Amino acid sequence: METIAIPAINLAPIMPEVILSIFGMALLLVNVFVPSEQKAYLGYLSLGGILITAMTVLSGWNAPVSGFSGAVLQDNFAVFFKCIFLLSGGLTVLISDHYFKREECNVGELYPLLLFATVGMMLMASGTDLMTIFLGLEVLSVSLYVLAGLNRANLKSNEAGLKYFLLGAFSTGFLLYGMALTYGATGTTRVVKIAEYIAQNGVVAKNPMFFIGMLLMAVGFSFKIAAAPFHMWTPDVYEGAPTPMTAFMSAGPKAAGFAAFMRVILIAFPALKADWSALLWILAVLTMTIGNLIALNQDNIKRMLAYSSIAHAGYALVGFTAGNPEGTAGILFYMLSYAFMNIGAFAIIVLVGKKGEENNNVSDYAGFATKHPVLALAMAIFLFSLAGMPPTAGFIGKFYLFSGAIKAGYIWLAIIGVLNSAASVYYYLRVMVYMYMKNPVEEFDWMKLSAPVALCITISVVGVLVPGVMPAYLLELAQKAVLL
Amino acid sequence: MSQFPLISVMTFLPLLGVVLLFFVPKQSHSVHRMLAMLVTLATFVISLPVATGFQSNAEFQFVERVPWIAAGPFQMNYHVGIDGISIWLVMLTTFIMPIAILSTWTAVEEKVKEYMICLLLLEVGMLGAFVSLDLFLFYIFWEVMLIPMYFIIGIWGGKNKIYAAVKFFIYTMVGSLLMLVALVTLYFKAGGGDFNLLRFYEVGLDPATQTWMFLAFALAFAIKVPMFPLHTWLPDAHTEAPTAGSVILAAVLLKMGTYGFVRFAMPLFPDATAKFTPLFAVLSVIGIIYAALVAMVQEDVKKLVAYSSVAHLGYVMLGVFALNLQGLSGGMLQMLNHGVSTGALFLIVGFIYERRHTRLITDFGGLAKQMPVFATIFMIVTLSSIGLPGTNGFVGEFLVLLGSFESELRWYAVIGTSGVILAAVYMLWMFQRVMFGELNNPKNQTLSDLNAREIGLMLPLLFLIFYMGVYPTPFIEKMSPSLEKLIVHVKSRQTAKAQIPQMPVPQAMPAVIMPPAESK
Fold it and tell me: Which residues are in the NADH:quinone oxidoreductase/Mrp antiporter transmembrane domain (chain A) (predicted)?
């Protein structure tokens, strides 16, 4: 029997994951001793964990470390994405306590689970082996299934958890099967080695097993990033899940899906670029169009943002299709901006919502601006950014994504993209119409603003506006973080 | 750049007003008004040295250029400057803003603070768009303008405000996003570098590429102008917008479209310009006649004025596409005239609307007896809008028709001229029905004449109406060198391209539309 050589263990490349996991486990223990009305302390602790992890992550900028014989690699690409994950995690923590207090569902597991989900995402970003990526994905997914169904008393939340679990497990099957086929064709699961193998044995590219492997992996990842036609789970899960978790799911895990998707496709399959570009082209068009068209007539704002997040995955796919540095840098920039604008919008939804996921209809926002002009302004900024209006980060991000596509010659894709953006304006404006132009139906006097939520909104507004006006710095970072 | 950043200060001064307004309590409406008024006045004062210091040559002046985004493949600069094409539009903007704000002194009572913030932001957007020499910067300002205007129509507008606001936003957005695609394509065709507009002028694109890029740019601008058949958002937006909104929309925002043609679409894509000149001439003429006919049957004064805008801008487009000095300077002048006259008309509509809360022509009649001052001012503005000699409207229209008669667009000018007659018909008819006749409606018998504020804000406009009508030389003098340069630029590039066997006939006029030259 062949002996398996165990490589020397170097924890450096997974240090952030280790730290965050330790925090997560510690929180699980602490949770037992914290009385249910003081769960907010767990939130502060997890914020501390996130901050410390973030510092560790940032120290890895421009200092790529690889470990576990090439199964993980913390390069700039991973660092950039990890910052997005930690940011989404942190912002979510800020709005969680407010929400779960209101829902009278003070479960402390929330915070450790959030941290574990973040660990999973981080592993996905730095995974350079199909197995590592899969591991990260599972850590993330299992935590998310629970988080989606966290509000046990709420039927919709239960449904969301179950639905997410079933479909998620299904998609994982696709992904795993694709990975297995790829392994079967190339004899390796290491992303770089796959590319090397193709380069050496050109015929493999024609091997149907190999091609189907890539296809199935693409299907699996498409599920995770909610690209049409694999998006069916999104609206129900997003609507049913507790609002902070929806915010989290739409920002972090989606970015993680893109990170892994990009790493696998761009690094392992450059030889098949023509094929996957064509595939992604179709995916992008479908995703943008279906997301936007259905979002047009949603009355529930969470559902509307769910469909809009499908559309946003489509915009990111436009940059992916291009497969050039502009496009990929665009995805990085966009995912970061999206975390700010979407979680910011969800923070306001948390504030406006009432117990039992009520008051979540677009029409409930009637006259919001009269009562809370500052919050309405913040919401307007997030919505304009989602719609891609300057001077917001959303515009710059879209500009980069689409110009990547234009540079690569996909002008029609860019045109379909901008037309979609124009269509999307309609449903974002609808919220604005209710906020600013309709008479108040209800008094918003009952609404209370808590400090963490206010902080989350402030950070998000800054995160949307500053890169919108002065994008140079962030663009430069995104540029340095691209894989190509 | 050691010189004083005059343009930047002018452009961003209203932003200072916005910041200050944030700190003023919600209820102090008079403070909001005063503050906005002072800021816009200060902006106007600061813009005066721009006009006086502007040398009559074709160069861009007061140029400022600072690196802005230099990451990755793109380089955007903060690059602004003024030439003869933009100078008067900038002046028109700074001039009309204080008037617009003064006009809503009593009309807007709710959310005055937000209203003023929107107006000031709008001014930043408009000025920025006119002075940008970096295409990316221009696009940002161009889009930014949409947001405050959307709110102005949607929050302070009339009954159908939401429909009008959303329609306005989406129409403009669709056009401008396609322009964005063309803009980025242009950038890559130019081989990267920065987004400097002047550099793009020198890029020689093949006619096939030019065609669709021109169309993308032209769509954005044509929607804004608005040209037939893309004009349907305008009557809605105009009718629903509050007075100041209508004034600014008519006076400045519509000029963005025509300015876009002159500054961007035509010089960037000379071959496509030649190719599409007949199309745009046809659309302009249809716009002139059709809008005049529709204006004639309007029952709402404001709608009538809105449709007259479409007709007037048809002249501007005709003059611009004539692509000779008379036509272009007529077009430019007509842009200013339309800003002044139609702006004034919307103010007038606002006056009677504030008094009677109706704009239906049938609700009025015989107002001249009750409001003699108003009647006089109204008459002057009406005549200037028709283009009576001695008023500003005449000079512009005359030059436009002269220019297009001398160009390939001769026959369009012939048809277009009939629009002048139609304009006289619908404007005078409207004037007669509103101002003359029996003063039989009891509600009209108690109307008060214009007050000092209202007269005061009309005076500068009346002054300009006569000044530009009698002595337009200073205006034309400053714009001519730049226009000449533009014409030479576009024409020389057209002939250069015409030698390539892309277009068999150097003149791109299809014989179907143009009668043979001998037939004249």
Answer: 128-421
Nearest to B154 among A419, A433, A472 (CB): A433
The residue extents of the domains of chain A are 12-480
Distance CA A165, CA A146 (A): 9
Give the number of other Cβ atoms within 10 Å of residue A377's Cβ: 16
- B177–A422 CB contact, under 8 Å: yes
Instruction: Output the CA torsion A312→A316→A321→A327 (10° steps).
Output: 150
Residue-wise pLDDT tens digits, B79-88: 888 888 888 9
pLDDT tens for each residue of A182-193: 898 888 889 888
Contacts of B72 in chain A (CB under 8 A): 325-326, 329, 475-476, 478-479
With CA atoms as reference, the chain B residue closest to A476 would be B71
pLDDT tens digit string along A206-232?
Answer: 778 888 888 899 999 998 888 888 888
3-state helix, strand, coil in chain B (%, to 5): 75, 5, 20
Query: Chain A contact for B147, CB < 8 A?
Result: yes
pTM (2 d.p.): 0.90
Number of A–B residue contacts, CB under 8 Å: 92
CA pair distance A433, A429, nearest whole angstrom = 6
Cα distances from A164 to residues A159, A161, A218, A226, A244, in angstroms, run: 8, 5, 19, 12, 16
For residue B30, give how far its alpha carbon lies from the nearest alpha carbon of chain A (Å): 19
Q: Hey, of A403, A431, A479, which one would you mutate to test binding to chain B, going by the most B CBs within 10 A of its CB? A: A403
DSSP code, position A355: T
Cis-peptide, bond into residue B229, ω within 30° of zero: yes
With an 8 Å Cβ cutoff, are A389 and B72 in contact? Answer: no
Q: What is the pLDDT of residue B463?
A: 92
What distance in Å separates the CA atoms of residue A429 and residue A384, rounded to the nearest whole number?
A: 8
List, in sequence order, every beta strand (DSSP E) within B316-446: none
Express each pLDDT in B393-435 by its tens digit.
888 888 888 888 888 888 888 888 888 888 888 889 888 888 8
Q: Which of B175, B205, B78 is nearest to B131 (CA)?
A: B78
pLDDT < 50 stretches in chain A: none
DSSP, residue by residue, B123-192: HHHHHHHHHB-BHHHHHHHHHHTHHHHHHHHHHH--TTHHHHHHHHHHHHHHHHHHHHHHHHHHHHHTTS
Indicate the residue of B146, B150, B185 with minimum beta-carbon distance to A406: B185
**Cross-chain residue pair A325–B73, CB shorter than 8 Å:** yes
Using CB atoms, pick whichever of B72, B143, B177 lies closest to residue A329: B72
Contact residues for B358 (Cβ-Cβ < 8 A; gap 6+): none
Rounded to a whole number of angstroms, the distance from the CA of A342 to the nearest CA of chain B is 20
Q: At what angle do helices A243-262 and A325-352 cross, to 10 degrees?
A: 170
Element (H, E) at A74: strand A72-74
Measure in Å the smallest separation between the Cα of B350 and chain A Cα atoms: 21
Can you give the residue ranges of every domain in chain B? 269-489
Tell me which H or E stretch contains B76: strand B76-82
Pairing of β B76-82 and β B61-69: antiparallel
Give yes or no for a cis peptide into A229 (omega within 30° of 0). yes
Judged by CB atoms closer than 8 Å, whether chains meet at B139 and A402 is answered as: no
Determine contact: A212 vs chain B, CB below 8 A: no
DSSP A12-46: GGGHHHHHHHHHHHHHHHHHHHS-GGGTHHHHHHH
Q: Is B105 helix (H, G, I), strand (E, B) or coil?
A: coil
CB A312 within 8 A of CB A428: no
ipTM of the complex: 0.88
> Closest approach of chain B CAs to the CA of A173, in angstroms?
39
Lowest mean pLDDT segment, chosen from A50-59, A98-107, B237-246, B329-338? A98-107
